[in-house]
Design a protein that fits this description.
Length: about 500
């Protein structure tokens, strides 16, 4: 039997039970901004797979497509091959630096406005208000016993959530295959099993995270609240309660005027509107907290109350720690542009821009022909009947355009070289061969290069692939021509 105050008895009280958060509807500048961002981000996510982009008869016409089967990534006029994955890596680096830039400038704006968890949770909450009513109605319904009305409301709300969740998972798989074709196969039961399992997983996570876990994902599961603290400093904009202006609160102190007491009070009337509208249920007046996603809805709520009681707006506002100290001392805070565009954010912006410009330059300069030449190692060389030495090479020519290409392989830097392939005859004095490469494909060909036996044991030369039409810059590869040292009639392989 456990003793009083034992760890066994105390364990159930170590953690507070979660209190459901029912944010109150609010109108204002930041709420309207959240509406706009939510509509734009959802439209981009759901509509993008259905956009078409004509790339000719040899390539898919879906504007944005991650073609896993053919190992291609298409984004409008840009096509990324597997060997060009560094472009994708560059985009990921830009995304990371972009998060650093936004966080150092305006705090957790990503979390408050554009994070998928925030966007879908906000959407689910609007559906909840439409079915159950606003905050007070939701609280009453939550406490009410189960009956026909509560069951109908719950089932209606969950059904709409489920439809949104299914649409979310369904939209994701359309990025990896032709959307109209996959949609038809999915509805007729002919889609691959991975498509159904992916939709199932994303449906479940969207339904649970957006409908039930909500702020718990932001506070407990997401690593970004912990990481972003390293990105913030005393000059970062944060949603701040200006306690030097709001305290002491006037709630319950109005009677002081009747008693003739000269009591100095703040602007905060302890109406709790800032708490009621918060999607994570925190009280911003308690200072910076990990639960604050800087959605700024508390600013809208507080500004509305200040207007009603005839006080200036901004009791809760975006403010830096430096500006907070200046305002507290009676000074004037720095202009917004000066706060945002400071050395730290300009460095992030410069790095971010440099990577983007470098990637655009590389995209503009890249050739759509790629060449790879490998020397055969068995045998290293062959002595022909005329005394010349032949080396064999495996050549891979990659055509990264959506049309067939006629190309020319040219050997330079090897005196007296003669070039031919298994499909062509040897012609003395010819140092090039013609090939035709199918669209969006790699052509492999065995290249034979013969040269006089007299020469360096290891002679470097260049193989270049050139398009026979147009002025596109070709690709080249440096290789070595091997000769034996002191070869006589009994050494080496002969043909």
């Amino acid at each position: 039997m456990s003793q009083p105050n034992s760890p066994v008895e105390d364990a159930p009280y170590l953690y507070e039970k979660r209190k459901a958060v029912y944010p109150k509807a609010v109108d204002g500048t930041f709420r309207r901004l959240k509406w706009a961002i939510m509509l734009v981000t959802l439209a981009i996510y759901y509509v993008t797979p259905w956009l078409r982009w004509d790339r000719g008869p040899y390539a898919p016409d879906q504007a944005v497509l991650v073609d896993m089967a053919h190992r291609r990534f298409y984004m409008f006029s840009i096509e990324i091959w597997p060997h060009e994955f560094y472009y994708v890596a560059g985009l990921l680096v830009m995304a990371g630096i972009g998060l650093f830039l936004v966080t150092s400038a305006v705090g957790r704006a990503w979390c408050g406005y554009a994070c998928p968890q925030t966007v879908w949770t906000d959407l689910f909450q609007h559906v909840e208000r439409w079915i159950d009513g606003d905050r007070n109605a939701q609280l009453r319904l939550d406490k009410a016993p189960w009956g026909p009305t509560k069951i109908v409301r719950r089932l209606s709300k969950w059904s709409i959530w489920l439809v949104i969740a299914v649409a979310t998972g369904g939209a994701w798989i359309f990025y990896f295959a032709d959307a109209p074709t996959l949609a038809r196969d999915f509805l007729t039961g002919q889609a691959p099993a991975i498509a159904y399992s992916t939709v199932g997983v994303l449906t479940a996570t969207t339904f649970i995270f957006g409908g039930f876990m909500r702020e718990q994902v932001c506070i407990y599961m997401c690593p970004w609240p912990r990481i972003q603290t390293a990105m913030l400093d005393e000059k970062s904009l944060l949603v701040t309660y200006k306690d030097w202006r709001g305290e002491p609160r006037t709630h319950g102190l109005k009677k002081a005027a009747d008693e003739g007491a000269a009591l100095k009070t703040g602007d905060c009337i302890d109406c709790l509107q800032c708490v009621s509208v918060c999607p994570t249920g925190i009280d911003i007046r308690e200072g910076p907290q990990i639960g604050c996603i800087t959605c700024a809805l508390c600013i809208d709520a507080c500004d509305t109350v200040m207007a009603q009681i005839g006080k200036p707006r901004g009791l809760i506002d975006y403010c830096t720690l430096d500006d907070a100290d200046i305002e507290k001392a009676g000074g004037q805070s720095a202009p917004l542009l000066k706060t945002i565009f400071r050395p730290r954010t300009l460095i992030y912006l410069g790095i971010w821009t440099s990577i983007g410009v470098a990637m655009l330059f590389a995209l503009g300069q890249r050739t759509r022909l790629d060449l790879n030449v490998q020397h055969d190692r068995n045998p290293v060389f062959v002595q022909l009947s005329d005394g010349s030495i032949r080396n064999n090479y495996m050549v891979k020519v990659r055509n990264m355009e959506t049309r067939p290409r006629d190309v020319e392989l040219v050997v330079t830097g090897l005196p007296g070289a003669v070039v031919w392939t298994a499909d062509t005859d040897r012609v003395e004095g010819r140092s090039s061969v013609d090939l035709r490469v199918a669209p969006d494909s790699i052509r492999k060909v065995r290249l034979f290069v013969a040269a006089p036996a007299k020469g360096d044991e290891h002679s470097e030369f260049k193989v270049t692939v050139k398009a026979k039409s147009g002025h596109e810059k070709g690709d080249s590869d440096e290789v070595v021509f091997e000769r034996p040292e002191g070869l006589d009639d009994d050494e080496g392989d002969r043909e």
